[in-house]
Amino acid sequence: MINREPRWLERYQDGQHDQVWHEFRQLGSAIRAHPELMEEAQLVCDEMAHRARRNIELTVQRLSDEGYRFHRNDAEETPYVAHYPPTPAADEHAVWLQQQFGSVPLTLLSWVRLVGDVWLVGTHPQWTSSASADPFVLEVEGTRHGSGSIRSYFERTWNNRRESRPFVLPLAPDKFHKQNVSGGGPYGLVLPDGCVDGLFSWEANMPFVAYLNWVFSEGGFPLPSGDRNQWRVRHRLIGDMLRL
To answer: Which domain of life does this protein belong to (predicted)?
Structure first.
């Protein structure tokens, strides 16, 4: 029997974010044996996604106001849309992820349905080395490519995986590829995973929500250098960010 303090959503909305995520981590995948708890946990994850989307929209707007140019990580710096909201097919895409990869963390499913795809790679007029700060990128629905294209990419990666290693669903290029230079493997979520929150794999592994909180606390650029202009930009971006 699972014992837990009730009212997860209410407590989360009251600011007990860390406590609620800690309880979810303690439950692990055992929560899936209890549909009523799964439903309540999904409500928390949906609330997290609403807060994350608000942070993203605010970050994109602030960067745009600063004259930041969002572009691809190619030599031509092709203009790029920073945030694609979920399409009407997002719910079906979340179902497909579960059918293809088995257990998928609830946080990722909420992200697909409620947040969308994000690409913060670009150039600031006073901060031309922004790519070196590892700008936040997370593309799950693959709106810019079409859902069929990203599904094929996910399937190829899954089929080519080495059985002895955990599978990482590739959701973003690493910090070197964001600078259009040779790098390592992409960032992503370790699957399958039956927990409420997943394990995000980048230079290290950490809970997905913890990674998102870190990203937003740095204005969308989690690895800023000591450059004074970078610090000034970051300082203007982080105000009023919601904790997830």
So the answer is: Bacteria
Question: How far apart (Å, rounded) are the C-alpha atoms in residues 103 and 158?
Answer: 14
Beta carbons within 10 angstroms of residue 221's beta carbon: 25
pLDDT digits (tens, 9 = 90+) for 49-91: 999 999 999 999 999 999 999 999 888 989 999 999 999 999 9
- The whole-angstrom separation of Cα 146 and Cα 135 is 23
- Within a domain: 79: yes
Q: What is the pTM of this model?
A: 0.93
Q: Are 116 and 138 in contact (CB under 8 A)?
A: no
* Chain length of the chain: 244
Does residue 243 sit within a domain? Answer: no
Number of domains in the chain: 1
174-180 long-range CB contacts below 8 Å, 24 or more apart?
174/202, 174/203, 175/131, 175/132, 175/134, 175/203, 175/223, 177/73, 178/73, 178/121, 178/131, 178/134, 178/135, 178/137, 179/73, 179/131, 179/132, 180/73, 180/74, 180/75, 180/131
- Residue 114 belongs to some domain of the structure: yes
Are the CB atoms for 52 and 111 separated by under 8 Å?
yes
**Distance from C-alpha of 141 to C-alpha of 143, rounded to nearest angstrom:** 6
Question: 């572009």: which residue's tokens?
Answer: 71
What would the pLDDT profile of 113-124 be if each residue is shown by its tens digit? Answer: 999 999 999 998
Is residue 173 within 8 Å of residue 157, measured between CB atoms?
Answer: no
User: Is residue 35 packed enough to be buried (19+ CB in 10 Å), middle (13-18) or exposed (0-12)?
Assistant: exposed
Q: Mean pLDDT lowest for which of 9-23, 50-64, 77-91, 230-244?
A: 230-244
